[in-house]
Amino acid sequence: MEDLSERIIKTDEELIAMMQDAVQREQGFRLLIRQYKEQLYYVIRRIVLDHEDADDIFQNTMIKIFRNIDRFEQKSSLYTWMYRIASNEAISFLRSQKRLATLGDSMSEEVSERLLAADPYFDGDEIQKELVKAVAALPEKQREVFQLKYYDDMKYSEMSKLLHTSEGALKASYFHAVRKIESHLNNLNL
To answer: Residue 130 — pLDDT band, cuts 50, 70, 90?
Structure first.
């Protein structure tokens, strides 16, 4: 039977305190996973595209978070800190697979299409598939900014702290990303 306290949403401060307390560490970690699993999984999934890889990377991300929670300095939000770990893990995975070296700054549409077609967990319609392909074809910085703004609805001020870039540069990256995606979608015969 599940403990009632595990169904209660905790604040980030409460989760951090629980994880820093030896007695409550595991319970705090379970709550942290429950509260952030979906968000972090999709951060990773949008980078690597493949469900199985994303699942493995998510597990590695959570282990890193568990081991390093005492190093979290609270200079940013907990989610921002975890987002950075998750995205770094996903990018490291791609580099270890030598996918980034092969694909350059942007993932080719052919590779993203093959990954989506082979993924039994992707249940989107044709337009969603084309959106994913268009996003995957963006240069890395534009792709990251677009994903944070479009999927995570993150404010530019928060993105600026996360990515160490000015808000103006982020707005420009997002603008160019949207234009490229619109161009891609407008060229389709759907």
So the answer is: confident
Domain ranges, ordered by start, for the chain: 1-103, 105-190
d(CA 115, CA 104): 17
Are the C-beta atoms of residues 137 and 130 closer than 8 Å to each other? no
> What is the tens place of the pLDDT at every residue in 47-86?
887 889 999 999 999 999 999 998 888 888 899 899 989 9
Buried b (16+ CB within 10 A) or exposed e, 76-98: eebbebbbebbbebbbebbeeee
The answer to whether the beta carbons of residues 49 and 93 sit under 8 Å apart is no
**What does the pLDDT look like over 84-128, one tens digit per residue?**
899 889 878 877 775 444 544 445 444 555 555 545 554 555 777
CATH topology of domain 105-190: Arc Repressor Mutant, subunit A (1.10.10)
CB 32 within 8 A of CB 72: no
Q: Is 130 exposed, middle or buried (0-12, 13-18, 19+ CB in 10 A)?
A: buried
CA neighbor of 106 nearest in space, from 137, 143, 145, 147? 137
Q: Evaluate the CA torsion angle 116, 121, 123, 128 in order and state its sign.
A: negative
Cα 137 to the chain's mean position, in Å? 17
Tell me which architecture the domain covering 1-103 has in CATH: Orthogonal Bundle (1.10)
